[in-house]
Write a structure and sequence with these properties.
Elements (H helix, E strand, L loop, with lengths): L2 H25 L8 H11 L7 H8 L3 E3 L5 E3 L10 E5 L4 H10 L4 E3 L11 H11 L3 E4 L6 H4 L9 H19 L3 E7 L23 H16 L4 E5 L13 H10 L4 E4 L3 E2 L4 H14 L3 E5 L7 H12 L6 E4 L1 H5 L9 E2 L4 H7 L7 H13 L6
Parallel strand pairs: 3-4, 3-5, 5-6, 6-7, 7-10, 8-11, 9-12
Antiparallel strand pairs: 1-2
Helix pairs in contact: 1-5, 4-10, 5-7, 7-8, 9-11
Bound molecules: NADP nicotinamide-adenine-dinucleotide phosphate (NAP).
């Protein structure tokens, strides 16, 4: 790199750093600008909960959401006077990340830059942001998470999928170690080949991914662990939610099909441990609180099959369970571009032992919570 380019890069980083610092202060309500009116206005929107203003307090008492720049939401549940940890969330607009941002607003000082604000593949930009913000914790939910689409890049270590799922978490781990921040990186059950029928996968079972998505995620896990032994890699499985998001999940696909009176394939000979999204977010919160280092599985405490999953949804919503077509795994698998693990089930004993039994629950108990959530949500799909 020549001197001119280095200078340009440094200037860009400095500018980004200033922007990030400014944004951080805005969001934590600590803007120390000259203009007092402007400062009060910002405090209203970004919530200095250590010294909340009246409007924010009213919103908090009414349990309302306050929306800040970049679409970051502060969910006011409880006004707390203790110092809150600074948490940067990457991928905060995604299926998992958007719920983390919603649920954690009252607990942490959150900075969740959108893709438009920070391209996570711009390594210098990410470094500038973290160096300016100096968070206590970084949570990585940015990913190339479309399993079938990822297959088009199989073998391409210069491609976007590998950059997002492998190189990015590795780089984040290096940066977090440098600034002494705890990192939670989210991964997947697809790191396993699903040939283990006897029992659910434990964290130390040998991975052997079948898809490029799984392979790139496994590479990301390893790079994180190498660069930052204090970091946590949390594998989640088939998160599902009653809240609408552009990215759909199996439960909402079922509802859509069954409500339209259309058949849906339900695989009968697969074993899965899907996690209710809110449980996964609470579990990640606990990992942050405990600063757990290493691999952790986050899933339901017992298993089901996609066939039983879909039929249970139909029964609970008064829809026609007869539309769920019993389908062998091999027949379903043949229709997908990416190979999937058959016995894709995660053992959560480690989580329960480390954190306690109150967060992860049986699949039927998760479905109870899911039904309650969709009943209170206007738009189901
Ligand atoms: N959903 C599942 O079924 C599932 C299952 C197991 C594990 N996981 C894991 O859970 C994590 C979250 O997955 P998800 O389902 O929430 O995925 P998602 O909905 O596709 O979200 C991915 C996020 O990454 C962001 N992103 C992608 N490229 C970016 C870039 N270059 N710069 C900045 N942001 C970028 C996206 O923002 P834009 O949309 O604005 O680009 C989005 O916020 C992933 O690690 C995934 O492997 C998911």
């Amino acid at each position: 790199m020549g001197p001119d380019r280095r200078l340009a890069g440094e200037e860009a980083r400095e500018q980004l750093g200033k922007a990030a610092e400014h944004q951080w202060r805005e969001r934590s309500g600590q803007q120390r600008g000259q203009d007092q009116d402007q400062q009060e206005d910002q405090a209203t929107h970004f919530g200095d909960l250590t010294r909340p203003d009246e409007e924010l307090l009213r919103a908090c008492r009414a349990n309302k959401e306050v929306v800040g720049v970049g679409g970051v939401r502060v969910c006011c549940g409880e006004v707390s006077s203790h110092k809150r940890e600074k948490v940067v969330v990457f991928g905060g607009s995604g299926f998992v990340g958007s719920r983390a941002v919603e649920l954690w607003g009252a607990d942490f000082e959150l900075l969740a830059p959108t893709h438009a604000e920070v391209d996570v593949l711009d390594s210098d930009g990410v470094a500038a942001l973290l160096n300016a913000a100096r968070p206590d914790v970084v949570v990585n939910l940015a990913a190339g998470a479309h399993v079938d689409a990822a297959e088009a890049e199989r073998g391409d270590r210069n491609g976007r999928v590998y950059a997002l799922n492998a190189k990015l978490p590795g780089r984040l781990a290096e940066l977090c170690r440098e600034i002494n921040a705890y990192l939670v990186h989210v991964s997947t059950d697809y790191v396993f080949d699903g040939r283990q029928a006897a029992r659910a996968y434990r964290e130390d079972d040998p991975p052997n991914p079948l898809s490029w998505y799984g392979e790139s995620k496994l590479a990301g896990e390893r790079l994180v662990q190498e660069a930052h032994p204090g970091a946590c890699v949390a594998r989640i499985e088939m998160p599902f939610s009653g809240r609408a998001h552009a990215r759909t999940d199996f439960a909402r696909i079922c509802v859509g099909r069954l409500e339209a009176g259309e058949p849906i394939a339900g695989v009968t000979d697969q074993r899965i441990t899907p996690v209710f999204l809110d449980d996964a977010i609470h579990a990640l919160h606990q990992l942050i609180a405990h600063r757990y280092p290493g691999l952790m599985h986050v899933a339901a405490t017992d298993w089901t099959t996609p066939y039983e999953y879909a039929r249970s949804i139909a029964r609970r919503l008064g829809l026609d369970a007869g539309l769920v077509q019993p389908t062998p795994f091999e027949a379903f698998s043949a229709t997908r571009p990416a190979q999937r693990p058959k016995y894709s089930w995660l053992d959560v004993t480690r989580f329960t032992n480390q954190v306690g039994p109150s967060i992860l629950r049986t699949f039927e108990a998760e479905l109870d919570a899911w039904v309650a959530q969709i009943s209170s949500t206007v738009s189901r799909v």
